[in-house]
Amino acid sequence: MFTQVGEIDAHHRQVRLRWGLGPEGAEPVVVGFDVLVLDESGRIRDVRGFLDKVPV
User: Fold this and answer.
1) Are 30 and 56 in contact (CB under 8 A)?
2) How many other C-beta atoms are found inside a 10 Å radius of the C-beta of residue 35?
3) In whole angstroms, what is the distance from residue 16 CA to residue 23 CA?
4) DSSP 7
5) Measured between alpha carbons, how far is 4 from 13 in angstroms, rounded to an integer?
6) Fewer CB within 10 Å, N side or C side of the chain?
């Protein structure tokens, strides 16, 4: 299950959101963040994903 981790950051047309992936009610097994770039109308133009914590 994906869950939001922390607050969403936004600046101009860029948005960063942190997320966790793991069993419901447990510590996330994988943690990462995505950066979204929006166009002039507020629609998603691009998404870049990053992983901060992955199982070894």
Assistant:
1) no
2) 14
3) 23
4) P
5) 20
6) C
